[in-house]
Amino acid sequence: KLLQFGSKQWYQRRVRVSNYTPKKSGGKRRSLDRRAQRRVVPDTKIKRALGFGALAASVGWGTISEIAKRSISDPINEKNKSALLSDENVERIVGKLCEMRGAALKIGQMVSIQDEGLISPEFAKIMARVRENADFMPDHQFEAQMKSNLGADWRSKFADFEMIPFAAASLGQVHYATLHDGTKVVVKVQYPGVANSINSDIDNLTAVLSVVNLVPKGAHIDQALVVAKKELAYETDYIREAESQEKMRSLLEGDPDFEVPRVFRELSTQHVLTQEFVEGDPIDSFDDAPIELRNAIGLKMLKLCLRELFEFQYMQTDPNWSNFFYDTQSKKIKLLDFGATLDLSEEFSNNYLQVIRSCATDDRQAIIDASISMGFLSGYESELMLDAHCEAIKVVGEPFAYDEPYDFVEKAAYKRVAKLLEVFAKHRITAPPEESYALNRKLSGAFLLCNKLNAVIPCKPLFDRVYDHKMNRVSV
User: Which of 170, 257, 369, 426 has the fewest beta carbons closer than 10 A?
Assistant: First the structure.
């Protein structure tokens, strides 16, 4: 299909990738990171609190040892380096978070999908490591979870079940299995104790990170923690997740670009979720793909964001790239995790649509008025704060304001937000609305993916189509 942009002609070429496989592909079957270990999950609040206390103590002792070592070895060259964040201490923090799992590890994984300019390099290093792997349950804990959720005869409900998980995440681990009719499925099993320890985990992690000065800058941390606790409570409710997955499956039915796996309700409970197995590889593993394929993946992800925001008013809000698989055969993105979902009000969706639209016309007052209506601003901010807020909003709207394809690497406008955080920290009067935390996470995840893929995408026609659909109810 030929698209005309100014004096240039840009072609959406049919992507021929039937023989392409990502270098990092695990093929049809995936397996755990080799660093993952079988370790008992601390399953009570007391055990988990002791674990965080031990982490703080070990980091403190490691810092003292590092200072002593540096004072002897090379006091001049090492004096400006952080002894607190030595390689040994980073390993201690990563190791403990992977052992503890639960809310602490989940927050680490969520933060790791942020631009490096928004968090300290040391914090980014730690959180990137904990995103890569987690430990998994020993057999006795796993058996107890399965029996309490699917019954003592749980094995009889499967023709085959692989006891070694192929993935171990922050809140649970995932196993391959086969049903008696031959259907291939994956079974997500939640770690014991994590659902009941969300609040204490987050408080303990915040205390540890505050001590080592790693709390992200420029945030209303108290409000952010309230939202995090609420979202994580949702994520540990697999019944809610099953309902959310079925809802999104219905909403995306007929869309040629996406697929949502079927849930098996009879094999799903509060802490166990069974769904059909789907082919594909994580979307971030396609960073070495042909440019046409990288652009196609980036465009599909932006399309999904816009449909969720303005058409469905229902969003999957965890941008972890492992939650999205791309299948080169079907050319579909497979959506895999619906623990974090958010309903948006009609008013919020409409106001945000107008905010993005106002960016294209550079209408500062329209941005401010809509932002007040949504609760981003109180109406009593200083001009400095208003300027910073409008600049941040324009960063979100910029890809949708250009007539020509937007180069997410060359432009990278969203990186300017990092320079505004100090203004937000000093001059913001009110915390952002609750929806904004998930919304910003979703959009930044999509933009950062496009950056990672070196995508050059015609975003404005996509937004205009969604805008017309919202205003006139035409087909997307």
Answer: 426
Alpha carbons 414 and 37: distance in angstroms, whole number: 37
CA distance 476 to 460: 14
Three-state secondary structure call for residue 234: helix
Q: Which pTM value belongs to this model?
A: 0.79
Rounded to the nearest 10°, the torsion over CA 100, 104, 110, 115 is: -100
What are the C-alpha distances in Å from 467 to residues 73, 267, 317, 327, 396? Answer: 63, 40, 21, 29, 16
CA 62 to CA 75: how far, in whole Å?
A: 17
Chain centroid to CA 47: how far?
28
DSSP string, 17-75: -TT---TT--TTS----TT--B-PPP-SHHHHHHHHHHHHHHHHHHHHHHHHHHHHH-T
DSSP-derived letter for residue 263 is B
Catalytic residue numbers read: 318
